[in-house]
Amino acid sequence: MTSDEAVEAGVRTTIMRGGTSRGLYLEAADLPPDPAARDDLLLRLMGTPDPRQIDGLGGATSLTSKVAVVSPSTHPDADVDYLFLQLGVGEATVSDAQNCGNILAGVGPFALERGLVPPRDGTTDVRIRMVNSDSVAVATVPTPGGRVTYCGDTAIAGVPGTAAGITIAFADTEGSATGALLPTGRERDVVDGVEVTCVDNGMPVVLALASAFGLSGHEPHEELAAETTLAERVDAFRTKAGALMGLGDVTSSSVPKTVLLAPPRDGGQVCTRSFIPVVPHTAIGVLAAVSVVTGMRLPGAVGHDLTASWPDSGRVDVEHPTGHFLVDVEVDTTVSPPRAVRSGVVRTARKLADGLAFPRAAS
Description:
The protein has helices at 3-9, 35-46, 101-113, 221-225, 228-244, 286-296, and strands spanning 11-18, 21-27, 66-72, 80-87, 94-95, 122-130, 135-143, 165-171, 189-191, 194-200, 204-209, 257-262, 270-275, 315-320, 323-332, 339-357.
């Protein structure tokens, strides 16, 4: 179907909550094959550019302006390919520069519902190639009686109620965007006079202590969001860090993410405040959390002193502005460079709507 035909005929679209994000899930076969035409169609479906996205399906935030494009995979270790696209809200931008672990949580159920993977009775493993980083994740989806269920008793912070738990195990995510777990080759660097650790285990992240930014690291989201000077500082900081990580000019990119660390205060093991890329996150992204825990496990890294009471491996409780996030990471520090042995998280997803979506006409 061409972009013009979609205006009248519609595009089959599933709207899903994946983790703490919401997005449009589409099969690649239902979209124009040309990337420019595809992106134009998606922008019109989402209602971008418009701060309110009033004429589309977006929710006027970056967390609800996301797209998963799914197709059968030819990769020998994967069942489906998943291309993540981050759409702008007020600006007509489409970025494939990063993965999204939250939207990833919905890819397994979507693939099963669309018949791209045959479900089994009990649980079904869906092997997902994340096209953005050419890495593979395995989502274990509850499928009692051979059907996807979204009902369950798993709660995740930032989402009301409970749903079926989906376990996601990551493989080969080291250096997803930069080519190395430690993109600079060092556990510690200095950016704008601030000691940092640059790490990439699925998401390029710059770790720094909140105190280095004059913060406690326990500030409410609203307080951080109101600090315009903080946003400017974070932007300048991450731009320099991006160049140091080999990402080039990141002024128009959503990576690297900046995550500020502080001692826990709510029963967790570390408190975080993250930015996407300069707006404070109400929680923390899935792959950002994985990279944070990975980086902190490295001796000599920023924040490593906070891990003295952590288990050598197993789940780490990461505090964020709206709750907690459990991350399971094991790192082998006996080799050089260090290597991530295992990474995994538990997420939930829920199908919100499925049918035809109608884009606005091309201008």
